[in-house]
């Protein structure tokens, strides 16, 4: 159940930007991600590619794994995933499989994005019989305050 007041998206996006800056300074793609449940960060990560050797070194996957490791759970139902970039196909599959409830990201990646590409794995209702699609809030940035759409977070 969502809280009656909107979550502090700016706070978590700011942390994502800090993690993205860490990735950039390490020579990696500047992407940062956090997984939040009940206002607490369960997992966070910076992109480890292209410098790292882990082929799944995307910030979103690493943050999800950290959250699973912390909770000992098998899914992330009810959680929110924040990222500086729209999750790619691979990350979108994992996010949906893990039952993340809300995805909040700053910038679109329309070529390979799970919501804006021609293959919207993250949001395609045709996949709802497999796993329900999370809600998605795009364009959320710490550069300008988040303004929720009327009636939503």
Describe, in short, the structure shown.
The protein has 153 residues and is α/β, with parallel strands linked by helices.
Q: How many strand elements?
A: 5
Strand line-up in the sheet with most strands: 2-1-3-4-5
> How many helices?
3
Distance between the termini: 12 Å
Helix content: 25-40%
Described by strand count, sense and barrel closure, the largest sheet is: 5 strands, mixed
- Helix/strand-derived category reads alpha/beta
Radius of gyration: 14 Å
- Proportion of beta-strand residues: 15-25%
Average pLDDT, all residues: 89
Shape: globular
The helix-strand sequence is HEEHEHEE
Spans of at least 5 consecutive residues whose pLDDT stays below 50 are 1-5, 144-153
